[in-house]
Amino acid sequence: MRYSKRERGFTLVEIIIGIVVISLSFSIISTLVLPATEQSADQVQQIKAAELGQSLLTEILGKAYDEQPGVSGGIYRCNDNGQPNCSLTLGPEAGESRNNYNDVDDYDEITQLAGENIQNALGENLGDYYLGFVVDVSVVYDGDFNGVDDYLESGSSNQLAKLVTVEITTPSNQVISFSGYRTNY
Asked: Whole-angstrom distance between the N-terminal and C-terminal Cα of the chain?
């Protein structure tokens, strides 16, 4: 059998060089693309945490300042002359659950773990959407607006304002905090 000079293929050396060049280019491309996909996943988690944190903070700050002046927007403030004192103990009153919280400090010490019992204001379970997220809420008196619990700072509580802090922990253990003040007006 005779072969003409036109019917030449690739030599073994050319094939090996081609394979090496292609493998190097794939490895370079994958090292550039892989970190971008990981970063993209973190951004999705941050967006979900922002949605959850902001909605919960808005829900909390929409409640009355304290149990004492009345939850219907009482005319007088707690600690005003002749009015009852603001609550010293923060947290829900006996028999209260989230669907009937009526003031800001009822939310103190709420912890919703890993999507199991994360709920919206209507009590609907959002666990499937926030799987792996953890919610922690704290409420403290911070009448001097410095971000520190007045009781821990000075041994007494300036009851002019309550600092509400909502911390959302993402599945990648990144903690994102949201804070707001509810004042005694």
From this structure: 102
Q: At CA 94, angle to CA 52 and CA 135, rounded to 5?
A: 20
Long-range contacts of 176-179, Cβ-Cβ distance < 8 Å, separation of 24 or more: 176/46, 176/49, 176/50, 176/53, 177/53, 178/53, 178/54, 178/56, 178/57, 179/57, 179/147
Q: What's the token pair of residue 91?
A: 């947290």
What is the 8-class DSSP label of residue 103? B
The amino acid at residue 101 is Y
In what side-by-side order are the strands of the sheet with 161-169? 111-112, 134-141, 161-169, 175-183
In 56-174, DSSP assigns E strands to 111-112, 134-141, 161-169
* pTM, to two decimals: 0.74
At 67-98, the pLDDT tens digits run 876 544 566 777 777 778 888 888 888 888 77
Reported for 64-72, long-range contacts at CB under 8 A and 24+ positions apart, including other chains, are: 64/102, 64/103, 64/104, 65/103, 65/104, 65/162, 65/182, 65/183, 65/184, 65/185, 66/103, 66/104, 66/105, 66/184, 67/93, 67/102, 67/103, 67/105, 71/102, 71/103
